[in-house]
Amino acid sequence: MSPRPARLVEFALTRPKTVLAAWLVIIAIAAVFAIQLDHALTAGGFSDPRSQSATTQMLIQRAFGDEPNQSLVVLEGKRTVTREDIATAERVLRDNGATSIADPQTNPSLASSDGRAVVLAAGFPGSNASVQNKTPAIQAALDRAVSIDAYLTGQPALDYELNAHSKDDATRAELIAFPVLLVVLLFVFRSLAATILPLVMAGSALAVSEAVGYLATRFTDISILYTNIVSMVGLAVAIDYSLFIVKRYREELDHGADVGAALRTAFSTAGRSVLFSGIAVAVALVALFIPGLMAFTSIALGGIVVTVVAILLSLSALPAVLALLGQRISWGTLPSRRRASRTVPVPRPRVSGYGVSIVAGLVAAAALIGIASPALGISLQSPVASATILPAGDPAQVGLDIAQQQVGNHDLFPIQIVITTPTSTKPAALLREVAAITHYAATRSETSSASSVTTAGVPTATLAQFIATTGTVPSALRSSLATHGGNWVARVVVTAADGPDSVAAHHLVLALRAQVHSNGYTIAVTGATAQGLDFDTTLERSIPWIIGFVFVLTFVMLLFAFRSVVLPLLALAFNSLVVSASLGVLTMVTHLITRAPINSVTPVLLFAVMFGLSMDYMVIIISRVIEVYRSGLSFDDAVTVGTTKTRAMINSAAIIMVAVFASFTSAQISIVREIGIGLGVAVILDALVIRMLVMPAVLRLIGHRILPTPQDTSGRRFRNAPVAPSKPRATPVRARDV
Predict the structure, then answer these.
(1) Which CATH number fits domain 3-41+161-334+353-385+534-737: 1.20.1640.10, 3.40.190.10, 1.20.1310.10, 2.130.10.10?
(2) Which one in 29, 66, 269, 423 has a CA-CA gap of 20 to 30 Å to 429?
(3) pTM
């Protein structure tokens, strides 16, 4: 362990009461802030504020006076929706701050053909957060006042429901995970004291991390995904780190060491592994800051904060508690068979046995490559223009579905083409340009309709002459043509035939951007579909940088940890194989259930989180192999003993992680379910296939040359390991020696 963490551990061991008192104060203060986190988080974050669609949307708001937040009320009945029903709903909207409302009287396309479904489009000023927080009050008022079914939907309502479900998902997952983890830890430790301790560490890590998240919302927007990632990663790493250290501590006690020696051995070995594993997780998550997208920065912040807090707790609070407990760590031990012997027979080298191991490992690696192959055809898309991310039956989703099915997509999530040119341009030339663009958009096969100032029923020549003569646009047409900042601003509203979130709609945006252009005019495309496409594009451009960043920093960190060039390269290869295989499984499962694309956030998040978490197993196993090898065993025997001695620990840690991630498959938000499935599969493949089969086989193939020489590791980082003798010791070897 490096000097500073070693000093932290030593301070905790010598002054445990002081350290625990400090942590209790920190946790008590953190709890006050943590309970306020949910109301401070922001939904959304799946757009690029620097993109063409975002900047063009701001221009639309300034030029045409569109309110920044558009909410929809969908009225549906078994009878024709009456004017009284509409008036009642409009009164509710105005009472709650709506400044503009469009209804079938002003826009006939907002009613279904049979009149049984009506959409009201209301504009609200203020921030998205302030409008979305009005959702429950507006929905309750509609339920009381309107005599037919009324659903509040639109982006603010969708964001509110996403926020609420995200909170529920995190709470539900924790309620599922903690009892399961209690049983798993009780099975692993067979001691009540040793079982409760990791759970206390995990709960403390979550409380402090949520408090940090609340404080961060005072300075910037934080996505609701912060809560999910804190729970998901925090439970996994905090419990695993405590497991590694406590298990090694109890092992040393079982071998006859006194409390002080057992603690120092545990923290110089398992503690060192925890330190580097935690750094690996944090380093991998730092890469998520690269795209500059709020959803990813929130996920990165949450994962990094909870990992750092888990490390600090593991290297300060945990040693303090263990120092105070001493031998009482085995308090509440369950009845079990007494071990017959404390010696571990070390197998003599058997070429045939090792040969079988190598073959099995290579076959397993080939199988993982095969499993990863479906990921080559993965289809990614962020569903920002639909409610598919929400659970079925959610009022906001039901309302949106009714609107799209019975009224149509018009004016709900349209694609908008915005044309700007200096006001010195003659009106006739401007209108010809707008007409040409409208015609091109309308004739695309992906288009249902396209409208603009030139399709409003006024002859183009007459309109051009009126504008040229009066210098103004008729008031009825100012929602399609206006002046702003010395420019004409015209917009063409396009409706996608297959819905705003379809693959065809994304293709339509690309086609419009590629073909719609003209000299002297600035033409841009915006709308929810365009914003989703820009988000995906920004993310895709960032992926090579994210991968490169993680690879380089992980390599440097492991090079520092192991003083070996080959081991970091192997770690990168193993982790890449695990992530690819888990994406392959996720792709297969998704294709079996639905043909919808996977959320574009999922694979990037899966890569970053799993790449860091996988280092736990790599560092633990390799550190034990080095320790055993330096005790005098041959390299092949060291691989066997190292993997055998850590197998129970690795499998226990994997079960804990799988239990945590599996609890999130109960989430109502689709992206959280995808992440839970992907991470759960990745942990299973990593623990059972990579670490137990592939890794030992590759180590034996390469041989002891992959390990650092005794001279490379004789300094303080391995000062607690015995010096390797010139000749191997005879077997059997006492378990305490390995």
Answers:
(1) 1.20.1640.10
(2) 66
(3) 0.80
